[in-house]
Amino acid sequence: MAGLKVYFDLMSQPCRAVMLFLKVNNISFSEKPIDLRHGEHLTEEFGKINPMHLVPVIDNNGFILTESDAILKYLTAYYSVASHWYPEDLQNRARVDEFCAWSHANLSLSASGFFEQQVVEPHAKNIPVNQEQLRKFSAELDGSLKQLESIFLKDRKYLAGDDITIADVMAVCELMAPYASGYDIFEGHPKIQTWVELVKQRLNPHFDDVHVRGPLGMVFAKFNPSANI
Asked: What pTM does this model have?
């Protein structure tokens, strides 16, 4: 079938970012769910779509693209969405790229690492939580949150300026995973809490669809039932 196809699992932070962007911008697409917990990404069939066996993946009329960062930037251009998502102004666009480059080795790594240790590994392997590794990623996440607040949100309403961009979408999805699994991302970080509320308002009702009512909602219910989401 022609048109945009999206291969995803909403337990994945990058997948949620792509899904949110598409829904908020009313972009039509066909959903192709890939169940990571049951290894559907490791099948030979899916390997023909993405040899790296990762999600998200888009297939836009035969053009296959992986990596959420690249996907979101491609979508902003292909669908000519509002320019604030990935600004045309060179310096403003560079701020988005700056955050994305920083996040790969900092926020994304520490947030996903905490989630893996707290939720994914124990469930997949039926083993206790590795507390030493959990403390390691918790400390790294704390460092990332401090930089997020003191640098990117120091004098900005959003991560790259005065309006929401794809950087905000990616970042909020990264933070919801450790938050769901019991890490209080707001403790001692009032600017982050204010920013998250702003981003949620801009993304709802779709934010709730992929976080509260999506599979991550089960994680919230188990690890952080009193969370403000």
From this structure: 0.96
